[in-house]
Write a structure and sequence with these properties.
The complex is a heterotetramer, with two copies of chain A and two copies of chain B.
Chain A: E1 2-9, E2 18-21, E3 26-30, H1 37-47, E4 77-85, E5 98-106, E6 111-115, E7 118-120, H2 122-131, E8 141-142, H3 149-152, H4 155-165
Chain B: H1 2-24, E1 28-35, E2 41-49, H2 63-80, E3 85-89, H3 97-110, E4 115-119, H4 123-126, E5 131-137, E6 143-148
Parallel strand pairs in B: 3-4
Antiparallel strand pairs in B: 1-2, 5-6
The chains are: A alpha+beta, B alpha+beta.
Bound molecules: adenosine-5'-triphosphate (2 copies) and magnesium ion (MG) (2 copies).
Chain lengths: 166, 151, 151, 166
């Protein structure tokens, strides 16, 4: 099971639909300051269910939707879709060779999830992630400037991390 | 649950020591358990000794040394409890040329077992990519992704 | 004392806007005063609009954009209230190649009025040095400083 | 008035006396991770009177003294000396063309200051710094990883910074 594709539409600076096909091994993302690289990371976090604004570098959920630029008007919807290769059926509850999980948010409305294009409740998509070993592995996403943060944690917090992992 | 914790912790300690020694070409790293008054583990602390130096508390380490130590610890956790994929955003920012090579070697080795998405400005790290994307922003404030050929 | 504050603040705002526009080749930056119920200034906030983009709150900025904005602000303070010397430790770490050039140009210009000690890993920043020291550590764990010739 | 020379002896990894002659314009310091570059910055801060351990990357004052390495025993004294060029007599109370201010610390003893080699009390050396426009300019020293910190400060804290500067 691996993440085959990340599709962003209307998410932060990705106003136009952008598809990133990932290697099962190492995919590198490069580019100038402010081009949108970390926005991709925010998008992946958010699609996996992150709700803490500080982890999404936003002051409100609406900040996730393209808010316009000097030449373009704002959009009213943002979406991030993660497409997993499920040929080894690691997702036990979904029996398709590819599993796409999309999270969508509209201005002044709750965000919603879609599994293979069909609406699904938040708690059900969290169950699916959990069964595939995702989501409880938020330590698997290291944000910019945060790599050494684990060392600064108090002994109790370090123990907590190991407990979460276990 | 307590057994699971112990099993996980000793696995992490084993790989942490191994990755640390590999990345620093020497030295030692271990995880110390801190006990409360009921003899229960209440916390854990990371303890390192860099090659040529003495054991020192973490605040004294340099920026690059902290990054490399944290990466050894993180990759140990990845090894013991694998996740389907990992996303690393500029984790090599504080590393000098020599240490970036060590990190990128670790990345290459571990990617035979796991999938990595790595954001970087560093040419050495880029060399390890099986796929490479360039993100650009035009004057219109919109991000654009371009698949780049690896040379 | 309140006059001194106002005078300093408007000076900082003027240079902040100027350095910001220069480093980002456009856009706008200003300092907003926040008033309390007695109409006294209780706080100030930095407000920026990057070229091609809309005005955005600081948390949304990228790592490199934050560094460059902070440097424009700091250098504005240096300009308004000069100190005898400045020490900058790896302030260019998050900057891409193009932005490191902008920072090093600002450094060169301001060094005709002030003294800078700059720690860096970056070759472009190094080019601006009038004196260059290489620090090394032998196996004995002791730092050694070597004066390097500028090529 | 400019800082001509920084001399470290026994301070952190500078076990042997090290003299750095500075340019009146730009001096760059380079080297591998852990070689001692930021230790020089800690030394300058400390010599200027910094007492907050978090700003000196230490857990106790004794951490400032070379604590030994794999092949060398610890030292019992550390010293950092700042030599200023005072040909323009910016230091109003000192009438020498060069002014050297040295801070020394012994294990389990208070640190002491020396002006041109003669003992001087802490409050008097602080007065000398203040008169030369140093010390109240701690914003003039930007530590590693801290450049963007000014942006994260609350509006009240940002106002405080301007007040300190004014
Ligand atoms: N909702 C939004 N609408 C429009 N622009 C946004 C939105 N959210 C964030 N941005 C912009 O995205 C940019 C930040 O992008 P990002 O953090 O991905 O850059 P980066 O490529 O990681 O750069 P760096 O190399 O400096 O880390 C900022 O300029 C910010 O203003
Ligand atoms: N009192 C001391 N005695 C011996 N070694 C010390 C002492 N204090 C700090 N060190 C060592 O100094 C090293 C850190 O040096 P420093 O932070 O100056 O590195 P640096 O050159 O800035 O590296 P980087 O490029 O990674 O930022 C650490 O290895 C630390 O163990
Ligand atoms: Mg980024
Ligand atoms: Mg350093």
């Amino acid at each position: 099971m691996y993440l085959e594709k990340v599709t962003l539409y209307g998410f932060k600076t990705f106003r136009t639909e952008t598809e990133l096909l990932l290697s099962p091994k190492v995919t590198c993302i490069v580019g100038p300051n402010g081009s949108g690289k970390s926005n991709i990371v925010d998008g992946i976090r958010w699609a996996l269910g992150e709700h803490r604004l500080s982890f999404l570098r936003a002051s409100s959920m609406e900040d996730l939707i393209f808010s316009g630029s000097a030449f373009k008007k704002p959009l009213s919807v943002a979406s991030v879709k993660l497409t997993f290769n499920n040929e080894d059926r690691t997702f036990p509850v979904v029996n398709t060779p590819r599993v796409s999980i999309e999270r969508r948010i509209y201005r002044s409305r709750e965000s919603g999830y879609f599994l293979n294009g069909n609406p699904i409740r938040l708690q059900d998509v969290m169950k699916i992630f959990y069964s595939a070993g995702i989501f409880n592995h938020m330590y698997a996403i290291v944000s910019q400037g945060k790599v050494s943060e684990i060392l600064l944690a108090k002994p109790e917090q370090k123990k907590n991390l190991i407990e979460q992992v276990a | 649950a307590k057994e699971e914790f112990e099993k996980t912790l000793s696995g992490v300690e084993k790989y942490f020591a191994e990755f640390f020694r590999k990345m620093f070409k020497g030295g030692e790293a271990s995880i110390e358990r801190i006990f409360d008054e009921y003899d229960e583990v209440s916390g854990i602390e990371i303890s390192v000794r860099l090659p040529g130096k003495r054991k020192q508390s973490l605040p004294l380490l340099s920026g690059g040394e902290k990054s490399l130590t944290a990466l050894a610890f993180l990759f140990a956790i990845f090894k013991v409890k694998p996740a389907p994929f990992y996303v690393l955003d500029e984790v090599d920012a504080a590393l000098d040329e020599e240490n970036v090579v060590k990190f990128s070697e670790l990345l290459s080795e571990e990617s035979s077992f796991a999938q990595f998405v790595v954001i970087t400005h560093n040419k050495e790290t880029m060399q390890r990519a099986d796929m490479l994307y360039g993100i650009t922003m035009q004057e219109d404030g919109i991000s654009k992704a371009v698949s780049l050929k690896l040379v």
